[in-house]
Design brief:
Layout (H helix, E strand, L loop, with lengths): L5 E10 L6 E5 L12 E6 L2 E13 L3 E6 L5 H5 L5 E5 L20 E4 L3 E10 L6 E6 L2 E6 L5 E5 L4 E4 L5 H4 L3
Length: 175
């Protein structure tokens, strides 16, 4: 399975028992959607390796306690600690309205209520305190915070996001 065909579900953060159980910290607001999985892909370097799940249960909010097949000792659990966990994109729950997944809006045009067409989203920077749209406008980089108050409409059909940004924000990047 190629990483481009998958989405990041979370990370194996700790061992749970001496029998190889691990805890996966899920990167989701709805962890209950992922309690009945049969398998996941675990990241080893550039590779994704399928791991089959014997049992799993919710654990402290957005964490999942997992017993993988063929992982029955602390040493075997150590080998997958801190690894990313992925699922195929087709397993991603569909979002509607103005909600979206970051990967879904790459390539969308951004249109500001006052400024007009800003440019095309080339990346989502989620490393900052506030996620940012990284927009290309004829070679210029423009950053717009992904604030609910700024995002007015997501149009999946026309691949556009309508925003209303504070006066002068976009112009800061164009001088």
């Amino acid at each position: 399975m190629r990483k481009e065909d998958c989405f990041y579900l979370g990370k194996i953060v700790t061992k749970y028992s001496f029998k190889g159980e691990v805890v996966v910290k899920l990167d989701t607001d709805e962890p209950e959607l992922y309690t009945e999985m049969e398998s996941v892909y675990v990241e080893f370097g550039a590779d994704l390796v399928p791991f089959f799940i014997e049992k799993s249960s919710l654990h402290k909010g957005n964490q999942l306690r997992v017993q993988f097949e063929d992982v029955y000792s602390e040493e075997e659990a150590d080998s997958i600690l801190k690894c990313g966990v992925y699922l195929p994109l087709e397993m991603l729950p569909k979002l509607t309205g103005d909600k979206f997944y970051y990967h879904e809006v790459i390539g969308f045009k951004v249109i500001d209520a006052k400024f007009g067409e800003v440019g095309t989203i080339v990346h989502i920077n989620d490393k900052a305190a506030q996620p940012l749209f990284e927009i290309d406008r004829d070679g210029n980089e423009i950053f717009i915070p992904m604030v609910d108050n700024f995002i007015k409409k997501v149009d999946r059909t026309h691949k556009t996001i309508s925003v209303e940004t504070p006066e002068g924000l976009i112009e800061l990047y164009l001088t």
